[in-house]
Write a structure and sequence with these properties.
The protein is α+β, with helices and mostly antiparallel strands and about 300 residues long. It has 2 domains: about 35 residues; about 230 residues, no CATH class.
Length: about 300
């Protein structure tokens, strides 16, 4: 029979207790270190993201200011990777294809605020009325079936969602003087409302575009195979006033803001509506890309008021 003294048993228990306490302390310490490393990485990632975004924004601003030497330029702790500048409209040749692009660079056109669609090019930021305006049909799309994150908009006259209607105002010029200033002008106003909330409108005046794939030639993949609920085709030519040409079309969503698209049909191209800037900034392993559309100054609201 082997006899183990009580003091040795107590010593063994104490040793086991010390080991257990050490293991627990080590686990807690490792968890704390791991959490600290995770928090540190998250902080660095957030900082890199902010610095990359700042660099992308700086790329847009410098491109607007006509700076062409941008790639690799340092901005704080980040750098500008690249900046793409595209003139939206006026650059695609048709036929064989009809150019499609998002109005306002893909950002929603504000309700009751609207956006201008020019039928003549600009020179030094000013519309050039010496040019022959675009003449042909235009198809206008509005009320997207999904937002840009893929979530359904659930537009529908009985769904409870506020379905955008569309107001279209065309500004037409006739005779010019010796300095090419337009001396006679008229305007037309049209309203298209699928839900027929506005007197004189009906669903029959609007085309169901829900099965049409809309593809922007300038923007990122999420803008391809895009679907709108509604469309309407208008002509820039007034059969009752053939001597007048359309120089400007104002598109105004009613009831709700809306992403909008345009498709043109003619032997000529639709004039440029402004520049789209797509800029990528880098900081560490992080890249951020932003797009910014810089259109021409909008027609003062007073003209629209008098046109109605």
């Amino acid at each position: 029979m082997i006899y183990i003294s009580k003091s040795r048993i107590e010593q063994g228990q104490i040793s086991l207790l010390i080991i257990l306490v050490g293991v627990i302390a080590l686990s807690v310490g490792l968890a704390f270190v791991s959490r600290s490393i995770t928090d540190s990485r998250a902080a660095v990632a957030q900082q890199n993201s902010q610095q990359a975004l700042a660099a992308a924004e700086a790329g847009v601003q410098r491109a607007i200011n006509k700076d062409t030497n941008l790639s690799g330029v340092s901005v704080g702790s980040g750098s500008i990777s690249r900046v793409i500048v595209a003139s939206v409209g006026g650059t695609l040749t048709i036929p064989p294809t009809n150019p499609e692009f998002f109005i306002n660079g893909g950002s929603p056109v504000p309700a009751d605020g609207g956006v201008d669609l020019w039928m003549v090019d600009h020179t030094n930021g000013v519309p050039d009325f010496t040019q022959t305006p675009y003449a042909g049909n235009l198809t206008i799309y509005w009320a997207p079936k999904n937002d840009l994150t893929g979530n359904p908009t659930n537009y529908g006259c009985s769904s409870g969602a506020i379905v955008p209607a569309l107001e279209v105002i065309t500004y037409m010029g006739g005779t010019k003087d010796g300095k090419n200033k337009i001396t006679t002008a008229i305007s037309h106003r049209y309203v298209f409302d699928y839900c027929a909330r506005i007197p004189g409108t009906s669903a029959s005046s609007v085309t169901d575009a829900s099965n049409v794939n809309f593809n922007d030639s300038y923007l990122a993949p999420q803008y391809q195979n895009f679907k709108f609920d509604y469309s309407v085709t208008i002509s820039t030519i007034d059969s009752l006033n053939p001597s007048y040409s359309t120089y400007l079309i104002e598109l105004i969503p009613l009831y709700n803001s809306s992403i909008m698209g345009i498709e043109s049909y003619s032997s000529t191209t639709l004039p440029s509506q402004g520049n789209l800037y797509i800029s990528t900034g880098t900081s560490g392993d992080t890249q951020r890309t932003i797009s910014y559309f810089n259109g021409y100054p909008q027609l003062p609201m007073v003209y629209s008021l008098y046109s109605r």
